[in-house]
Amino acid sequence: MPKVVVRNFAISLDGYGAGPDQSLQNPLGVNGEELHQWLVTGI
């Protein structure tokens, strides 16, 4: 039985961890990268 292992998890200040339609192929959901853009831009 395969298992999903989560090694890191980020959550935005308003409580979102992923966008809509999250799946194994799209783990952050549709446009989920935008939720965490502040992290990579240093804002």
Notes on the protein architecture:
By secondary structure, the chain is largely without helices or strands. 12% of the residues lie in helices and 0% in strands. It is built from one helix and no strands. The radius of gyration is 12 Å and the shape is globular. The mean pLDDT is 79.
What are the SSEs and their pairings?
Elements: H1 37-41
Kindly summarize this structure in a few lines.
The chain is largely without helices or strands. Helix content is 12%, strand content 0%.
Tell me, rounded to a whole number, the average pLDDT: 79
Q: Please tally the helical runs, counting DSSP H or I stretches of 4 or more residues.
A: 1
Q: What is the CA–CA distance across the termini?
A: 41 Å
In sequence order, what are the helices and strands, one letter per element? H
Class per helix and strand makeup: little secondary structure
Essential attributes:
12% helix; little secondary structure
